[in-house]
Write a structure and sequence with these properties.
Layout lengths: L3 H15 L4 H13 L1 H23 L2 H7 L1 H24 L6 H4 L2 H20 L2 H9 L12 H34 L3 H24 L5
Helix pairs in contact: 1-9, 2-3, 2-9, 2-10, 3-7, 3-8, 3-9, 4-5, 4-8, 5-7, 5-10
Length: about 210
């Protein structure tokens, strides 16, 4: 099994990579500005689950295919970019109804929460930064003499996932706090929601234009 020393070293390197804001952070911030704290936290959860989908893909061999096939990488990247743009457009269209989330019925809240988590899963599973990190870096920390390679990768993958969960939550809480401060008038709230939705659209365009080096 993976040694404690390897886990700690991998955690230190993961923290350095995760500290640089990427698509997941910008997505969480955009959702926080557009919809508020609850949606931001649900997005973080979904994002982390989606990221672990990437870990599983790498652990069970799909990572090698992504590494060697430009077509597969581009397909995943464009799918994620298109979904980000779609979410941004939807948020922009409904920016004037942001207060509805605070007064919705419990059944609607549960349905909205599930949808938000699923959105986060899709974005997390198609994040180019995460895709490259897990496919190129994670396998280097495996000890082939220490047991099952896929199992080691699944365990090691929990390290950046946990770090990302903490840091993305802090980003989401910070952005939603700023939104709450600005939300003293409906007009300003609408403007903030519009800014968050435009940020998601811009992020989608940026991801689409991102090369394999990211």
């Amino acid at each position: 099994m993976v040694s404690t020393q390897s886990v700690l070293a991998f955690a230190a390197m993961s923290l350095l990579v995760i500290a640089i804001p990427g698509p997941s952070v910008l997505f969480v911030v955009g959702r926080a500005l557009a919809h508020g704290r609850r949606t931001a936290l649900e997005t973080v959860l979904g994002n982390m689950l989606g990221s672990y989908v990437l870990v599983a893909a790498v652990a069970w061999g799909l990572g090698a295919l992504v590494q060697t096939s430009a077509a597969v990488f581009t397909g995943v990247k464009l799918a994620g970019a298109a979904y980000l743009v779609y979410l941004g457009v939807q948020a922009f269209r409904h920016r004037g109804a942001m207060r509805l989330a605070e007064t919705a019925a419990p059944a609607d809240e549960r349905r909205g929460a599930l949808r938000t988590v699923l959105d986060g899963i899709v974005v997390g599973a198609t994040n180019p930064k995460g895709l490259v990190f897990f496919a190129a870096v994670l396998p280097q920390w495996v000890d082939h003499a220490a047991g099952s390679v896929p199992l080691q990768m699944m365990v090691l993958g929990l390290v950046p996932i946990t770090i990302g969960l903490i840091t993305d939550t802090l980003w989401g809480l910070g952005a939603s706090a700023a939104r709450s401060w600005l939300a003293r008038s409906d007009r300003r709230l609408s403007l903030v929601g519009g800014a968050g939705s435009l940020a998601m659209i811009g992020l989608g365009v940026t991801v689409a234009a991102t090369g394999r080096s990211d």
